[in-house]
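Example S7 (structure tokens).
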């Protein structure tokens, strides 16, 4: 969709959906990394340091007794705050080499377009809850810099129009600005954004680029731009509201770029590949309807940040999907 049409659509949805808007903190809900998968060997030792749920011995025993009780063991293996991800698969594996835990989880994000290979961060200094959320925002803004630089390089490799390549590079500079702004806001609340770590991968084929763009750009980033528009109007914290005014404009432009890339790539893909690209976008939006860390925040913190509650977020998503290309 074109930038002007997206901006007008966002305004209509925000005005129609938001109750009493006050004003301030930012960041888009969601460009989230892909599922993370890992298999970790487990050494059972009676002297293992105790965790919140007990030592490794106890966690393994519970898992072996009843597979539904494996979650604490998998959470211990991931070594992240359980609120920072959605656990999708959890299994204790026994082999000739001993015991290992296989986990698949989806990190929850609070920022923009995520690059493929983004490593879920181990939280740094967290401060208060709002500061921790702002630090997560800054982390994902920083990750978006890489995402757009990778997109620009892949567009160039696939001989995309110069205007798309230039727009992707400009978006990377926007994200640098956003990361700095969100980092300063996080620091005011005693939090430090965790560093960005990315497992770089070779240039992808056009279908893979298009599928990633459909999910991260046409799906999550478009919704994120809508949420940013709400924050710019509704955040109660004046500093965050002011920051979001500029960020929302940039994110709307980034969403329009995603749709432009989608249109260009679709003309070059076979029908089956185009169907897979559309499916990736639809799946990303379905995941958004399941909620995000922002919608599980307390009501006072949501008001400070200008974020919708779960019911309003679902209404906004429904309204957005109804107006986007099928």
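Recovered sequence:
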């Amino acid at each position: 969709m074109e930038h002007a049409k997206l901006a007008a659509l966002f305004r209509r949805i925000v005005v129609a959906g938001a109750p009493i808007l006050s004003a301030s903190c930012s960041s888009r809900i969601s460009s989230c990394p892909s599922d993370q998968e890992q298999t970790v060997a487990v050494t059972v030792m009676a002297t293992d340091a105790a965790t919140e749920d007990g030592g490794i011995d106890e966690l393994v025993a519970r898992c072996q007794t009843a597979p539904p009780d494996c979650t604490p063991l998998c959470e211990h293996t991931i070594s992240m705050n359980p609120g920072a991800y959605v656990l999708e698969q959890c299994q204790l594996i026994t082999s000739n080499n001993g015991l290992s835990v296989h986990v698949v989880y989806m990190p929850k994000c609070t920022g923009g377009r995520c690059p493929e290979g983004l490593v879920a961060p181990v939280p740094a200094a967290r401060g208060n809850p709002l500061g921790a959320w702002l630090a997560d925002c800054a982390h994902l803004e920083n990750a978006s810099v890489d995402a757009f630089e990778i997109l620009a390089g892949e567009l160039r490799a696939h001989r995309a129009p110069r205007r798309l390549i230039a727009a992707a590079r400009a978006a990377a500079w926007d994200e640098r600005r956003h990361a700095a702004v969100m980092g300063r806001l996080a620091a005011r609340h005693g939090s430090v954004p965790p560093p960005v770590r990315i497992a770089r991968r070779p240039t992808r084929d056009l279908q893979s680029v298009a599928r990633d763009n459909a999910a991260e750009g046409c799906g999550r980033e478009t919704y994120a731009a809508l949420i940013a528009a709400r924050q710019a109007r509704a955040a109660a914290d004046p500093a965050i509201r002011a920051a979001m005014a500029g960020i929302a404009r940039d994110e709307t432009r980034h969403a329009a770029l995603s749709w432009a890339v989608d249109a260009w790539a679709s003309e070059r893909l076979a029908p089956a590949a185009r169907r897979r690209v559309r499916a990736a976008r639809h799946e990303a939006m379905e995941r958004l309807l399941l909620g995000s860390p922002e919608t599980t925040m307390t009501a006072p913190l949501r008001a400070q940040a200008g974020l919708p509650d779960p019911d309003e977020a679902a209404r906004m998503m429904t309204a957005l999907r109804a107006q986007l290309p099928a």
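Notes on this example. Residues 20-34, 45-54 have pLDDT under 50 and may be disordered.
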